[in-house]
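FAQ

Q: What does a record look like?
A: Structure on top, sequence underneath. For example:
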């Protein structure tokens, strides 16, 4: 029996997740995407899909239905929710320990997302009067209601709040990437077991941590910040094949032509200063990466100022292409690939 799942992902990374699903889960069918979401059918138990590291959260789809955009249509929404058989959720959590509905909406509805969530809660209560309504802070089950125009998608959250952060015992430095984004960068580098892999601006080691999920020959990272290096070492303590050290990414202590893959989240403009300063930094970083990369090597870089990176690559005679633009905390950073 196939189940339909909805995986949420940072907007811009949908196709990265689709590729990851196709490689890791070849039995998956009917892959479709919308902004920030990937839907798919799978015969596998839901826990098996937790290996998808670009996923922020995983949901089991309960149903799709049409609902009007006016407040008078809220009883229709409540009735539709009450019609769903939700008995399967007891395998995920105890509804007697509390359930909540979180809603989002996009369109011209005359009701708020909170009113939509309340209508859904009332629908569940009508069908299952013995279940207990929870609170945002205290619940065992979380349902999700997404409204887009007159289409509604109702689902059950399967992952907890720490899933996308790889648990609650990680150390993150200031401006650290979310692990799921770091994994997307790693995935774009096409990890291979023969890789010599380097993050020249590693921060707290999030990208390096994600690269640990795949075989490699050697992995190294560095940063100018002593605090970042300590966090990175703490996060990578289980790895005996990675080296993290304090260094200046503009003068790497690495031999020329010794690295297969660079993957890094380069400093953004507000971390450096003026655009001219950022362009100068990118120029120095790209020049050093060009020196250290093997012929045919590549770099996957997340940057805020793509034009500065393109100019730097041109000056170093490195081929540079844009892969995808993301939507991240009000910014529009872009992933680029550089090939030597």
């Amino acid at each position: 029996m196939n189940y339909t799942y909805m995986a949420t992902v940072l907007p811009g990374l949908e196709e990265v997740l689709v590729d990851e699903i196709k490689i890791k889960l070849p039995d998956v069918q009917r892959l479709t995407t919308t902004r920030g979401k990937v839907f798919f059918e799978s015969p596998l138990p839901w826990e098996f899909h937790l290996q998808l590291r670009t996923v922020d959260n995983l949901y089991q789809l309960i149903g799709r239905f049409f609902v009007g955009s006016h407040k008078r249509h809220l009883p229709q929404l409540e009735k539709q929710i009450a019609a769903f058989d939700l008995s399967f959720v007891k395998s995920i959590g105890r509804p007697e320990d509390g359930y909540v509905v979180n809603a989002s909406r996009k369109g011209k509805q005359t009701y708020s997302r909170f009113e939509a969530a309340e209508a859904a809660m009332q629908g569940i209560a009508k069908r299952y009067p013995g279940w207990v309504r929870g609170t945002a802070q205290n619940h065992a089950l979380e349902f999700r209601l997404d409204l887009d125009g007159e289409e509604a998608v109702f689902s059950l959250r399967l992952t907890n709040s720490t899933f996308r952060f790889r648990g609650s015992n990680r150390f993150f430095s200031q401006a650290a990437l979310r692990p799921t984004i770091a994994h997307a960068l790693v995935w774009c580098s096409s990890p291979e077991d023969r890789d010599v892999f380097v993050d020249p601006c590693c921060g707290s080691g999030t990208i390096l941590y994600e690269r640990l999920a795949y075989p490699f020959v050697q992995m190294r990272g560095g940063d100018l910040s002593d605090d970042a290096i300590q966090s990175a070492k703490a996060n990578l303590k289980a790895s005996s094949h990675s080296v993290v050290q304090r260094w200046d990414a503009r003068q790497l202590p690495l031999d020329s032509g010794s690295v297969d893959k660079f993957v890094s989240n380069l400093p953004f403009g507000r971390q450096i200063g003026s655009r001219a300063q950022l362009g100068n930094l990118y120029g120095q970083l790209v020049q050093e990466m060009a020196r250290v990369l093997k012929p045919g090597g590549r770099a996957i870089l997340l940057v805020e100022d793509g034009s500065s990176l393109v100019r730097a690559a041109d000056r170093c005679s490195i081929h540079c292409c844009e892969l995808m633009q993301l939507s991240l905390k009000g910014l529009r950073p872009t992933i680029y690939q550089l090939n030597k």
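Q: Is there anything notable about this one?
A: The first strand starts at residue 3 and ends at 8.
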